[in-house]
Amino acid sequence: AESPDDEFALFPALDPNHLFPHDEADPTSGGEHGYVDPQGFVRDTAGRHTGWRAVNFFPYGIFTPLTGSVSGIYIRLPRLFMTDGGSESIDTYMANLALLEGNIKGQTGVGPFYLGDASTVPVRKGFYPVGTEFAHPLHYVDLQADGEKGPAVKGAAREGAAREGAVREGAVREGAARGGVARDGVAGQGLGAGGPAAGYEFPGTRAKRLKEMRYMYKWRDVTLADIAPAEDADAEGPEGLGGSPEAVIGREGQGWVENGAGWILAAFIEDRRGDLRTQTTEELMQCVGCHGNVGNTIDAVWSFQRKLPGDLGWGEMDYGRYDARQPQRTRLRDYRRQGEEQGELEFFYHSVIGADLYGVMPREIAADVARHAREQGLPARLGLTHSLEDILDDEALKEAGAEERRSRLLERQAIMRDYAATRAYLYRDPGDGAHYVRGAILYPDRETMKANTHLYRKIVLDQSFNLGKDVFGAESGHIPFTFRSDGTVRDAEGRIIPAGAIITSRPYGEDGVGTTPTGIVAVNAAGEPIDRDGAPVDISEHPERAVGHVSSGGTFFTLYNPILGDVPVGRPGE
Question: Quick check: 233 pLDDT over 60?
Answer without folding.
Answer: no
